[in-house]
Amino acid sequence: MDHDAVCLESTVLIRTEPTMAEPGSPTVTWAERMELLKDSAQQRVLNAPMPPAAMEQLISEEKADVLGRFEGSPVRYMGRWWRRNEEGWVALDEAASAQLDIHAERYRAATAAVGAHPEPGAGLGEIASAQPEAGTA
């Protein structure tokens, strides 16, 4: 086979999407197979406890989001909320994650509103010095 024929054959093979099929089973394209593998891998990750060091790395790389700065704070990763237990970090199911999304939104709104006010126990002098003087605003 000459060079041009080989190039043409390679182009045809690249442009056509090969399929995988076993006798008696429906035809599955490579793209569909890859998507199934991706979903399968994601399910394996979601169904197995994650080591604490792995989650800490995801948090430090900002690939996972911590809800708050308190002990036991859940973490959002891969579209799910995770909680820590004795085995490591475990993903909550979809329904629990959806519920926690609602509560997380409320928590963030509440902490943002509190952040705009003085800390509890702040002295009156600290509060007064944080406010503009009359007539300067």
Name some characteristics of this structure.
14% strand, alpha+beta, four-stranded antiparallel sheet, 137 residues, 5 helices
End-to-end span in angstroms?
A: 85 Å
Determine the strand fraction and express it as a percent band. 5-15%
Mean pLDDT: 74
Class by helix and strand content?
alpha+beta
Number of separate strands? 6
Characterize the main sheet.
Answer: 4 strands, antiparallel
Gyration radius over CA: 27 Å
Quaternary class = single chain
Number of helices: 5
Residues in helices, as a percent range: 40-55%
Arrangement of strands in the largest sheet = 3-4-5-6
- Enumerate the spans where pLDDT stays under 50 for 5 or more consecutive residues: 10-19, 120-137
The geometry reads as elongated
Provide the succession of SSEs.
HEEHHEEEEHH
